[in-house]
Amino acid sequence: MPKVSVIITTYNRAHFVCEAIKSVLGQTYRDFEIVVVDDGSRDNTREAVATFKDPRIKYIYQDNRGVTGALNAGILASSGECVAFLDSDNVLFREALQKSMEFMDRHPEVGFCYGQISTMDENGRPLRLKRFRGPKVTRVNNGRKELVSLLLAERNIGHFIARAACFKQVGLFSTTLCMSEDWDMWIRMAAKYDVGHLAVPMIKARYHTQSLTASSGVEIVKKAHTAVLESVFTDAELGPLYVHLKKRAYFGLNCLLARVAALTGHKGMAVRYFTRAFGRYPKIVVDPKAFYLLIWSSKVLLPQAVRRFIIDILIDLHLR
Predict the structure, then answer these.
(1) Most buried residue among 10, 72, 224, 317 by CB atoms closer than 10 A?
(2) Where does 4-207 sit in CATH, by number?
(3) CA–CA distance from 85 to each of 178, 208, 308 (Å)?
(4) Which pTM does this prediction carry?
């Protein structure tokens, strides 16, 4: 039985999936299997995967069931003690599995761990001046503290590795969500287990030009994120523990919606969500993290001079 199963879900990405597979085969850590779940591709994905003759690669074809259907099929077909997830258009850094598995072996109390990510364009060119984002310190974080950060949109988790046993405890990915299924899973796991932060590069995430408009719209983002938040705030166990964070959590959601609306060309809608974010959480003037989130969201919405004016007002209020 392999130590870790790497699940690669794909749909019409024959031109990228081979690069993802090669990044796993090139790992310094060797005790793995690769489970490629083809979610009904109509291109030559099957033929592309078949060019690899490594017996550690499993190929599963299914009729299109969406992201969660593919992820769950991969989990059910895997046999590793741990499960790693890799989108077919992303690639792993060479030591990603080794660093992750060493950490998981040292910390049996950890349910899942994640590390730093970098972004690249469709041709593999780096996109950010700041090369990596993610954990700055390698450590074990208390699960309930991690849950707070997840609720408040203070975490950006890309690639992650979880113990297979965790899925028996928290269940598979929710098939009722059209997106945000990974965020929902992180929250459910953090409610039960501690979380590992690795201050090492793990994944290169590919950013597509169509990513800004591929979604069916801001309303889908809103519906999915609201469903995840409400699943926490209405939970019999978690609700009473985190209800005091509800306004702050919805502040973060409105900041996200403002940013998504602006990036998809809906500037009027973006202004409304941006205004709603400030109105729902006036404590922003004494909450540095919320202050930063608001300014981060405004970067795609407001001219620099206007943004500078707002920052000056908020700083003045904060210093009073």
Answers:
(1) 10
(2) 3.90.550.10
(3) 18, 19, 40
(4) 0.86
